[in-house]
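Hey all, quick one. A colleague (J.T.) asked me to put the zinc ion job into the tracker so the inputs and the structure tokens live in one place instead of scattered across chat threads. No bug as far as I know, just bookkeeping. Sequence used:
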Amino acid sequence: MSFVIDAQILNIPKAELHVHIEGTVTPDMARRKAGENNIRLDPAIFSADGARYQWRDFYHLVTDVYSEMARAIRTRQDYEDITYDYLTRCAAEGSIYEELIIWCSQGDAVGLSYADMVEGMAAAIDRAETNTGIIARLNTALVRHQPFENVRREAETIAAYPHPYIVGLDLAGGECSGDIPQYQPLFDLIFARFGRPLGMRLHAGEAAGPENIRAALALHPAPLRIGHGVRCIEDEALVQELVARKVVLEICPTSNVLAGIYNSYANHPLRRLQDAGVRICLNADDPGLFGCSLAGEYQVARDHFGFSDHELMQSTRTALAAAFCDDLTRQTLLSQRAFVPGLRDP
Ligand SMILES: [Zn+2]
């Protein structure tokens, strides 16, 4: 899949709430980091021409291919480099705000502490803001496709390291493993010890169906945002509940199509959710893995779902309204020149 982004799309200010840091790593960056770290990556994760990643199915992608590629990212400097690379690419395509997802235990897998991983990313966030103006914050994630005891250790690690750029908490990883309610005590532990409020979002309604979204909404506090959530479309009452509760769905159309959740944009429910009044924002999810970008997703929304400029701007405004950053940062972003009357909601 290739994306041609026109000038009008590039000029629209954008904001992204759902992107996994290791998932931003392009094949070129993975090979560069593998070389620097003297790691031999399985060549089967790349296409024959080396230009993209390849996978058999969704599970193979999110577990085997993802973790094999992520083995190349091993040091604090690596996390700084990949974060800076992504943020500057986003800024060049008109993004003004990014929330990046960290898998807490990913650092453990390569012998890197969680603090080093976060500090590398924080250094890149500062440098990217200085050089381009883009603002970024972090969402830290419990990863559910592992034994519960490991997830409990992740919760302890997260609770003990309240870096100021960590603004949100996520439950990510293979959605079909682990019932959501069992993680409530871990969320409670983090909220009790972190020392300041954290925004709450869960991955739900992507690989698994509406029942996972309902389970997410039953947590305390209920998440304000759902990662993906697109399969709510299978349950009309749930769609109405999401509208009534003003829950934001972080929708990643290209990710959903390439990961096989839907077999084409034509069958993706983005337009139906938008028309039903669900609050949505557009996201790239794993842009390095998929060869897509945030601006590319805005282009896809225009070309395949008929989004107007107004609807694209609405995605940006929804993302900024639902961002987990502090209110001063949010007001700074919303007061940028791009939001002057004329582009505002009528
Ligand atoms: Zn995700």
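Adding what we noticed when we looked at it: Strands lie at 14-20, 95-103, 135-143, 166-172, 199-204, 225-228, 248-251, 279-282. The first strand starts at residue 14 and ends at 20.
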